[in-house]
Amino acid sequence: MEHDVRDLSLAAGGRDRIAWAAAEMPVLKLIRERFEKERPLAGINVAACLHVTTETANLMETLAAGGAEVALCASNPLSTQDDVAAALVDQSGIATYAIKGEDTDTFFKHINAVLDLRPGITMDDGADMVSVLHKDRVDQITHILGGTEEPTTGVIRLRAMAADGALMYPIVSVNDADTKHLFDNRFGTGQSTIDAIMRATNLLLAGRSIVVCGYGMCGRGVASRARGMGAHVVVVEVDPTAAIEAVMEGYTVMPLREAARIGDIFVTVTGDTGVIRREHMELMKDGAILANSGHFDVEIDKPALEDLATGGVRRVRAFVDEYVLADGRKLHLLGEGRLVNLTVAEGHPAAVMDMSFANQALSVEWVAANHATLEPRVYPVPVEIDKEVARLKLRAMGVEIDDLTPEQELYLSSWEQGT
Q1: Are 227 and 371 in contact (CB under 8 A)?
Q2: What is the Cα–Cα distance from 163 to 146, expressed in whole angstroms?
Q3: Residue 197 to residues 46, 189, 226, 305, 347: CA-CA distances in angstroms?
Q4: 3-state SS class at 23
Q5: For residues 294 and 268, is the Cβ–Cβ distance under 8 A?
Q6: Which residues contact 254 (CB under 8 A, 6 or more apart)?
Q7: How far apart are CA 28 and CA 16, in angstroms?
Q8: Burial of 252 per CB tally in 10 Å (0-12, 13-18, 19+)
Q9: CA-to-CA distance for 377 and 356, rounded, in angstroms?
Q10: The 95-97 sheet, strands edge to edge
Q11: For the whole model, what pTM was predicted?
Q12: How far apart (Å, rounded) are the C-alpha atoms in residues 248 and 94?
């Protein structure tokens, strides 16, 4: 079988970790059991460009159980778990192309290797695979039924393509599901980002000032977890509504040019480019730490940081690079400015990825069943899928909820009843 992973001898350890994650993913397990019986993806090739983690491995095995022929590559050069990649190849029979630390050329070589499967459905995390298809492999698009896209960053790119009339096949925005962005983005990103910062630095967060750039669902999660660790949290925003919410949640809100002077740790979670720029770095304290938890490594201006580092750059800890400025101040960049929760730590906990990947699996099934009626645009996850994921999660947690009475249902559907 074609593959490109670091070392197949790592497979046994990877299998143990995949099984550990599976125990925390009961919703995906229920879907897999149904897929094994119904085989809704039989005869369909699925190409996935996702973070190669234990949770992703469980998703790939679920799709394969549904009858799909699956190939997987990494959606980020530093997020691959090499033992998981080895286990997928050696023990699950899934073509996998991913090596932690791969260079840019290898990254795109791997995307093209997965596309050689000539997929009927694509699964993307950041829209790199979609971009390669639309730029370099347009001839394949006529064979594609549809796709899915996971994070906010990728959805932004796809909606821009759709608005320009450039998107050539339908794609489901998994991020739009309530059971994804309300939980994965907030609880997953919040915990995993703080976990990564602590693993990389071993710093005490209590009493420090942490500046969170962006107060979307991911920013909310990071801010709440940082506050829970005893940090003083400052929020930076460009959206007035989000800024008001942060103020009313008790956070200090100010422009980044002011926050730059007081922050000890800076975290970007915006999905945009050039958030922390030269003018901000020039104001930062000696020893300030910069981390990005957005998908692409463009939120912190790395070229500007390198230009400022006239005193040199050196790696002082694993995933911690020290930049010495002309006046002797030192700024520290974590995980090369890539999404820190996956480059330094292990990404989101499996329990929260259970819902996100359940949405992925059911959305792939939905695309396979409904592609003939879909247009080349970005679709939200169907409400019935979102609700089903929530129901399955509650069931797995042993939590019961009430049902509306017939009288309540009538009241909610009538305009004649009221005061």
Answers
A1: no
A2: 18
A3: 34, 12, 10, 19, 12
A4: coil
A5: yes
A6: 234, 236
A7: 18
A8: middle
A9: 21
A10: 95-97, 69-74, 45-50, 121-124, 146-149, 171-173, 378-380
A11: 0.90
A12: 48
* Exposure letters 171-210 (e unless 16+ CB within 10 A, then b): bbbbbbbebbbebbbbbbbbbbbbbbbebbbeeebeebbb
Q: What is the pLDDT of residues 148-190, one digit of tens each?
A: 999 888 999 999 999 999 999 999 999 999 999 889 999 999 9
Instruction: Specify the length of the chain in residues.
Output: 419
Instruction: Name the residue among 119, 133, 204 with its Cα closest to residue 166.
Output: 133
User: How far is Cα 6 from Cα 102, in angstroms, rounded to an integer?
Assistant: 10
- Check residue 417 and give its pLDDT: 74
Half-sphere exposure of 27 (CA within 13 A, CB side): 27
Cα 81 → chain centroid: 15
At 362 the three-state DSSP class reads helix
Neighbours of 62 (CB within 10 A): 28
- CA-to-CA separations, 10 to 77, 83, 85, 86, 93, in angstroms, rounded: 19, 5, 9, 6, 15
Burial class (CB in 10 A: 0-12, 13-18, 19+), 151: buried
Per-residue CA distances from 291 to 49, 63, 194, 255, 343 (Å): 24, 34, 10, 18, 11
In this predicted model, what pLDDT tens digit does every residue of 322-380 receive, in sequence order? 999 999 999 999 999 999 999 999 989 999 999 999 999 999 999 999 999 999 999 99
In the block, which residue shows the tokens 């070229």? 303
Amino acid identity at 10: L
Cα separations in angstroms, 198 against 146, 169, 185? 39, 41, 19
